[in-house]
Amino acid sequence: MQDQYEVVVVGSGAGGGMCSYILTRAGVKVLMLEAGRDYDPISETPMFNLPKDAPLRGAPTPDKQLGFYDATVGGGWKVPNEPYTVAAGSEFQWWRARMLGGRTNHWGRVSLRFGPYDFEPHARDGLGVDWPISYNELEPWYDKTERLIGITGTSHGLENTPDSQPDVYLPPPPPSPVDYYVSRGFASMGIPVAASRLAILTRPLNGRPPCIYATPCVRGCAIGANFQSTTVLIPAARQTGKLTIRTNAMAYQVDIGKDGRATGVSYVDRTTGKHHTVRASAVVLAASACESARILLNSKSSRFPQGLANESGLVGRNLMDSVVHTTLGQFSALEGLPPRQDDGLGGGSAGHIYVPWWGYGKQAQKQLDFPRGYHIELIGGRKMPSPTSLRTITNNCSQFYGQPLRAELRRKYGSYYRFSGNGEMIPNDDCYCEIDPDVKDSWGIPTLRFHWKWADPETRQAVHMRKTFHEVIERLGGKVVDDGSRLLAVGGATNHEVGTARMGRTSRDSVVNSFGRSWSIRNLFVMDGGIFASSPDKNPTLTILALSWRNSAHLVEEARKGNL
Amino acid sequence: MNTLYQPKLSRRRTLQWIAASSVAMTLAYRANGVTGTLVAFHPEAKGYGTDPKLLEPEVTWPRIMQPYQLQQAAILSDLILPGSESAPPPSSIGVPEFVDEWVSAPYPEQQADRPIILEGLKRIDVQCIQRWRKPFHEMDGTFRAQLLEDLAQQSADAHDTPPGVFFRRFRSLVVSAYYTTPEGFKDIGYTGNVAMQSYPAITAEERAILDRALSKLGLPASSSDRHS
């Protein structure tokens, strides 16, 4: 027996969650397919739980790679039964969650709008491609999205760092003492520091309570004070009575009818291994940039030998992540601070302040040897001690044992501060995913093979990050205690994969149009980070949400006009 | 500490531990304690998987350390971070059990630490027996202190020697275990994980400490403690 829906949405994270929310509220009957299990943050989040109760005090293991209490279900870098491969000479990691709400359950909540420059990178410096839309076109959708999910921050009027509408921002918490100290170092270099913009409430909003300044956001939030698809979008979509959710349903193919239109989706039930087909008038892929590319590439037929929506050959190409370099500093000036309750907004996953990219002017005057910007995420203070943070402190103690060691640990705890650059990557021909001809997952579905090579602009940008961090640490009388084992993180390590089904103005140079709609299959849409034409330094989730809202509203309109 | 260290385990865990010990004993350890391999192996140990119950955490692997190894670990832990007037010694808040849980775990990082820790403990016993004809836990306090000092010295002189690697790794485990307990939180000054209505702004006292430090570095203080 086959199911019939108006729209089938593959994925339940930022893209799929928002799409289902918009469609069901417009009265559209939606089936959501989620590869992972059902997940309920209200009953499952380990809020306030202590390291002493967790195996290995919560230290990361291959089963829980960001620590025991991290929300991610299903393995993260390695999902059992679902391998991927990396081509010789490449390094790439792919983070996956197998749970309702996907990666929105553990993300960092950093929510930065792309700016006007970010939509026309090629026009400005001749690299990459321009988006088919401008900032002005997306601006109203950013406004709507921010009003719905709640953003804490302030207006700061900085170049290419657009502010929200004046009534949108929830008031930010004050900088912590360590934030104050570090911001004076940046100020001495002429670098402005701003309040973070985070999808975490500091005032009640739409029935959700504000943050309680305790417990790390990566565990998820049982009270719904931060944004997760599972606390903000999916419950509201369910209330419409128009949403059906099927979990453990791993989509692997978009089915095509004789007329060349999508007829629905085939999936395998991960618990039974049985294959199913669902029918719908339109199909939305929002399974994450790489998983959606995998589905398109695996939907091969004699009519579409390269996979679906792939006349341009660009499905899986232009894979991008963020450019990240992290440096840890230790500051003797911070050793003398009295203890304070310091978990703060974000609870260790994000900080109260950040540094927006300050170098647009210098880049315009060709004073920098890399073309694109980065912002700096800053975290410090008296966070809950963990085996990982304690190991760092211990290894940097000069005392060996006894009361002197105890005294040094007490003094140095809280005196560390982390600087993490998040930069824009330019798409290049060496970074892409494709179907591995030899490897299949446990259900016989061909898997992805990744190719990755950072190019010179990224390397030079990371060098600049490191130089900047060292300078600010030195000005503040601190010392560099950890500069990472490498200049640039492994590709994919920042979980910001985008670009694999990019949008554009013509079918020759893009996979989808500006509404995420396939050029060739008019009732097939992509609504995750895959459609990004570039990967600005600003973290992708807010833009995935805004685009999904805009494109879902377009889908509803087209359906009403009979244009699907 | 001359009486055998009593692990603070629940009855269920004690039973698991006894069951595991007997397997480990027959598999690996030779009775005199100074010869043979000490790297116990438990073939059935498995991890907690990619979807453990976060609200009911459970250690899924059996412990492999023997009672005298736990006792050694207890003595060494208490030398590394002796109790103070306001803080308990590590052996009284489960640190040796954490070392056991760690070296028994079936994950690569912990399996790499296992021989470092267990062989390090054994090396200490061998040394004591060769020089003084009794195991480490029967030595008196002065000897133990001297031995720890020797270890620390070796760690300082040559990072890569087995005793140096053992000392740094063991010490790191002790500190990790100690300061992830409520007692450790209190001692190190972690007062978070408590719900607050608002995040408190920087205090005058905090501000004064930081402004003094900034002034010494020649950096101007800010006229405001709000966001710029």
Write up this protein.
The complex is a heterodimer of chains A (564) and B (228). Chain A has 564 residues and is α/β, with parallel strands linked by helices. Chain A has two domains: 1-42 and 96-109 and 112-140 and 227-314 and 497-564, FAD/NAD(P)-binding domain; 151-221 and 323-423 and 453-489. Chain A has twelve helices and 16 strands. In chain A, strands 1, 2, 5, 6, 7, 8 and 16 form a seven-stranded mixed beta sheet that branches. Chain A has a six-stranded antiparallel beta sheet with strand order 4-10-11-12-9-15, with helices on one face. In chain A, a hairpin with a 5-residue loop joins strand 7 (262-269) and strand 8 (275-285). Chain A starts with a strand and ends with a helix. The model of chain A has no long low-confidence stretch (mean pLDDT 96). With 228 residues, chain B is mainly alpha-helical. Chain B has one domain. In chain B, helix 2 (67-80) crosses helix 3 (95-104), helix 3 (95-104) crosses helix 6 (162-178) and helix 4 packs across helix 6 (162-178). The termini of chain B are far apart. Residues 9-39 of chain B have low confidence and may be disordered. The chains are: A alpha/beta (564), B mainly alpha (228). Chains A and B meet through helix 5, strand 4, helix 9 and helix 10 of A and helix 3, helix 4, helix 5, helix 6 and helix 7 of B.
